[in-house]
Amino acid sequence: MQHDSVETAGELLIILRHAPHGSSWLREGLDAALVAAAFGRQVTLLFCGEGVTALVAEQTAGPLGQKGTQPTLEMLAMYDIDTLLVDQQALDERGLTAADLLLPVRPLAPPQLAAALAAHPLVLNF
Amino acid sequence: MRYALLVQGGPYSHQAAHSALRFAEAAIARGHHLETVFFYHDGVYNAARLAAPPQDEPHLVDGFRSLHEAHGTQLKVCIAAGLRRGLLDEREAARHGKQGHSLEAPFELTGLGQLIDAGLSHDRLITFSP
């Protein structure tokens, strides 16, 4: 176990499992996080699977038409969303390390992921 | 128990909405209270007023509507997800200069904050996603 705060973290855990471009899952999941934070809820984000690619630095919206998510991620701190958990295994599988990412994150091993899920009274999965 | 459902799958494209309705009916039959269904992502299409499925398929929109009529379940549709997908009630249609409306009571357009409230105020929030 790394840190007590995973177990004692916020009221709401939002799991992000989709890459930024190709669907609106990530954007709509982040919208839910921002709204919850704006209503004063303590929000934790967990990036899993393809969702870890959301955090890769230096993305642009480009010509794809989908509104990019990087500006939203950069705003998280303003909403006091600063517990960003990342599935370590998903990083490893994609050859990524925490240094490749836009924001400081806490990588978690599978047992810690389970603890994070258990620690939040409400979990929303996007 | 007091249940809320979150539906994120579009009707007929995915199993999610079918399963949500079946879960709703089963939970109620077991004596639980289904107080809220929240529609988000492509789930907002389950509120389409003009849905006209073939007669030999379950009518999902009517299925959700009857939850409200029989059990008072609130049917809440995320306004941001709805508007960008063309789900507008009369008021929003007028506001955006559209000729028709595609969503009507008992479905109601509401903010995402209502999803968070539902999640925290009910005993269980069950998500149905594709």
UniProtKB/TrEMBL annotation, chain A:
**Gene3D superfamilies this protein is in?**
DsrEFH-like
Family matches, as NCBIfam families: PRK00211.1 (NF001238), sulf_tusC_dsrF (TIGR03010)
Q: Under what name is this protein listed?
A: tRNA 2-thiouridine synthesizing protein C
User: Which Pfam families did the record assign?
Assistant: DsrE
Q: Which organism is it from?
A: Franzmannia pantelleriensis
Entry's family note: Belongs to the DsrF/TusC family.
Automatic annotation (TrEMBL), chain B:
List the subcellular locations.
Answer: Cytoplasm
Gene Ontology molecular function: sulfur carrier activity; sulfurtransferase activity
- For whether the record's keyword set contains Transferase, the answer is yes
Q: Name one Pfam family in it.
A: DsrE
Principal subcellular localisation of the protein: cytoplasm
Q: Tell me which Gene3D superfamilies the record gives.
A: DsrEFH-like
- InterPro entries given for it? DsrEFH-like (IPR027396), Sulphur_relay_DsrE/F-like (IPR003787), Sulphur_relay_TusD/DsrE (IPR017463)
Family membership: Belongs to the DsrE/TusD family.
GO cellular component terms, alphabetically, are: sulfurtransferase complex
Q: What is this protein's record name?
A: tRNA 2-thiouridine synthesizing protein D
Q: Does the keyword Transferase apply?
A: yes
One of the GO biological process terms: tRNA wobble position uridine thiolation
| Keywords, comma-separated and alphabetical | Cytoplasm, Transferase
Identify the domain of life.
Answer: Bacteria
Q: Which organism is it from?
A: Franzmannia pantelleriensis
Matching entries from SUPFAM superfamilies are given as:
DsrEFH-like
